[in-house]
Queue: 3 jobs
Job 1
Amino acid sequence: MILVTGGAGFIGANFVLDWLAQADEPVVNLDKLTYAGNPENLAGLRDDPRHVFVQGDINDRPLVAKLLARHRPRAIVHFAAESHVDRSINGPGEFIQTNINGTFSLLEEARAFWQGLAGADKAAFRFLHVSTDEVYGSLGPNDPPFAETTAYAPNSPYSASKAASDHLVRAYRHTYGLPTLTTNCSNNYGACQFPEKLIPLVLLNALNGKPLPIYGNGLNVRDWLYVGDHCAAIRAVLAGGRLGETYNIGGWNEKTNLDVVHTLCAILDELKPAANGQPYASLITYVKDRPGHDARYAIDARKIERELGWKPAETFDSGIRKTVAWYLANLGWVENVVSGEYQNWMATNYQNRGAS
Ligand code: NAD
Ligand code: TYD
């Protein structure tokens, strides 16, 4: 048994589905079901007794203690977080509450549980903390990519809250000996991503004939990793990572935002041409930049390849085609997530950006 937090979100759900497709080890899935958590992501597991879903907050310590005591997991894989940079700029409070306080609560309960174990169970226990490359800050065009030794320099409330949680995890290893592992991954894309992030947002807007908002000049660079590759990397770290270590995970796919959006438009032109005959790229609209917008992220993923033999299986071309195909085949999923709350967010984030 493993305990997954945030397993109804984008990466967590992909991880739970992948996990149960590969092994028979059951999963307890603790998720608060915020706007980003969607039980429909896990619909395929509805009648699967290996999946125990619990709606709850990682800050609810009695609940976490009860789940640990009842299910006695051999590992905790911690995805639960507030994850969107623009929302963190708009309202950082929830990011502090979940990403920092929530991780602290989980660490405290994990520590108490682990300290009560003995022998082989104690030795085998793992706390795997899923984090982001954004903790390292922003690179210039000629800087080397982020390595595990790069100094932390988070710039957004989101990345600062993740950096704080990484430091807490590190401290629990150093001070209490908790058997921790941390992964810092680049931008993910794939099935079930909430359409507030660049790729699904552009897909959805394009299909609805709406403007494709490009912040600033569109030349900011991100490294993109297919979510299935991220899940495989986490499994590899859980199975063989060295205790207390951090592993950077990336796709060796640096792209400007404009490149990504043009690629999406070209695939849509091919698979689902617009009814008005116009290329989707004609919807590209430059809008006011994100405050503090990080210029470039790039990941040096050689450590995880060297130590654990992991490297991405998908290229950007193969992964992005799978992703577009998934959204086109799951328009019902999209319709269901585009709820009132989503409309509120679109108004909050985009109404006053205008064209720059
Ligand atoms: P997401 O926003 O899609 O999902 C987050 C999930 O956590 C949701 O299901 C939500 O309901 C749940 N959650 C939020 N607060 C909670 C709380 N207090 N208690 C319990 N559950 C709670 O996020 P994601 O994109 O799947 O990211 C998952 C993790 O991976 C995060 O820790 C994020 O920082 C990290 N990460 C994401 C990316 C990316 O590109 N998306 C890249 C690197 C790292
Ligand atoms: P996002 O998907 O929010 O991920 P992150 O900020 O964590 O990297 O954004 C990816 C890039 O796309 C980032 O440089 C901001 C940019 N972006 C836009 O240009 N327009 C948008 O509407 C969004 C959501 C993002």
Job 2
Amino acid sequence: MAIRQIRYLGDEVLRVPGEVVSEFDDDLRALVKDMFETMYHAEGIGLAAPQIGLSLRLCVLDVQDDDGSDADRLALVNPEVVRASRETDKSTEGCLSIPGLEEFVTRPATVTIRATDPNGEPIEVEADGMLARALQHELDHLDGVLFIDRVSPLKRRMLLKKWKKSQEEDRG
Ligand code: NI
């Protein structure tokens, strides 16, 4: 297993839609392990393949349930939203590819996702709350969409300004 390098805002790969995964082999399962390791190392709750430079429709999530069970540890291959509630929910989001930035994002409150697991077995996940939000955020990554694209133009400009400033500070 290995920790992969996370790509940051400005890296073109984050804007490229992922390709459908068609091989469910040991390489895929090893990649999923790396993605979990990378996500935990970065203390994130979700990570999509484009965030480690791979244009693939693949993401991992670990959104802790209230009961602290492992039930929400998910590796989703070729996931799709098959149902989204009309009811929306507004809450803050951040992203491992845009560290330090957070903003309120409005999204459907409940979603149903269909995907396959890394062995090619079908999975269906119905989620609300934090998991619903995290799923939609990660699926956006597979289409080259970031949470900053889902806020008002004014908020987006403010976020980009803040990001630019933080990058300049990092460089010294
Ligand atoms: Ni993200």
Job 3
Amino acid sequence: MKFFIDTADLDEIKDLASTGLLDGVTTNPSLIAKSGREFIPLIKEICKVVSGPVSAEVAATDYATMRKEADVLRKIADHVAIKVPMTPDGLKVCKELSDDGTMVNVTLCFSAAQAILAAKAGATFISPFVGRLDDISSDGLQLISDIVRIYENYDYFDTQVLVASIRNPLHIIDAAKMGAHVITSPPSVIRQLYKHPLTDIGLAAFVKDWEKTGQKIL
Ligand code: E4P
């Protein structure tokens, strides 16, 4: 399973990249606004820190403007994935860019029907938002299971399921059980994955017992 981080905070990106576990980054207009940074220079900086896919989202919603914005964004680096909304115009842009060899991340997916359309449009990634579905008492993870199963039925669907809008470690564990290809998670949830109280208790006991031996390795 690939791990992407869902943030536009460069310090967080650098910190998690240093673990060696980070495979990519996703951003969106809300995250860019939160960062307070200029969009294009920020994406350039992120691309220098992370060699995997870096998703940069178009701001327009009409075909012609999205297409022009995508052309600007994809010039930033070869590993920029253009993020387009799950709309007819967004998928039109997706098809053209994919045919041209550019990675595309189709965002704001909330149904299996939408995921089928994105795969047919040649999307590199489809981003179903599990947390936002859970928020309205719909089963976000059931959607992941459905999409993974549907894609497995067709060898010619190369689209990777990128589980987005993650709220907690269980979203990641369950998505992994289902065989989702990628998760994009807030940094805080990735850090939670390390934690278990028995690890902390066990480590404290080992440190104490080692001190009793009076030995040193270095
Ligand atoms: C995905 O690419 C989105 O940026 C993100 O996961 C949305 O998450 P949210 O529902 O926490 O805003």
